[in-house]
Amino acid sequence: MKIGIASDDQQSIAQHFGRTKGFVITELAEKKVISTEYRENNFTAHSQPAKHEAHEEHQHSHGSILAALKDCDVVIARGMGRRIYDDLRNVNIEAIITDIPAVDDAIDAYLAGTLKDNPEKGCEH
User: Fold this and answer.
1) Average pLDDT by stretches of 10, the chain with 125 residues
2) Residue 107: which of 21, 22, 31 has the closest Cα?
3) Range of the domain at 48
């Protein structure tokens, strides 16, 4: 299984899913990390300020980001819009909004079964 974690620096979890600089993609097997890669976020207009100002992303579907993360079973961020939260879940990717600030701590909590989703911390925009 794979977990995608929104991160600007590959260590801390980004506050906003769509504006993150990239995603730490961690592959797990038998409750252990077997590989990690970093994918730069060039999938959304949110990650490109000039485009985001025009709100182009909200005029279109989230297809490019969903396609970029389609191999992930779970996606984690410290915040995300309600539309992308629902869109991820609609394509069978578990979306989790966490309070945990560190990537490694979130992975450990997920493996321990203690990572809590806080959907109320999502934003409407």
Assistant:
1) 97 92 96 95 60 45 85 96 91 96 97 93 65
2) 31
3) 2-121
Reading the block at residue 24, the tokens are 């730490």
Whichever domain contains 69, its CATH number is 3.30.420.130
The number of domains in the chain is 1
Alpha carbon distance 69, 88 (integer Å): 9
Contacts 24+ apart (CB under 8 A), 42-47: 43/67, 43/68, 44/18, 46/16, 46/18, 46/19, 47/18, 47/19, 47/20, 47/21
CA atoms of 89 and 30, how far apart (whole Å): 24
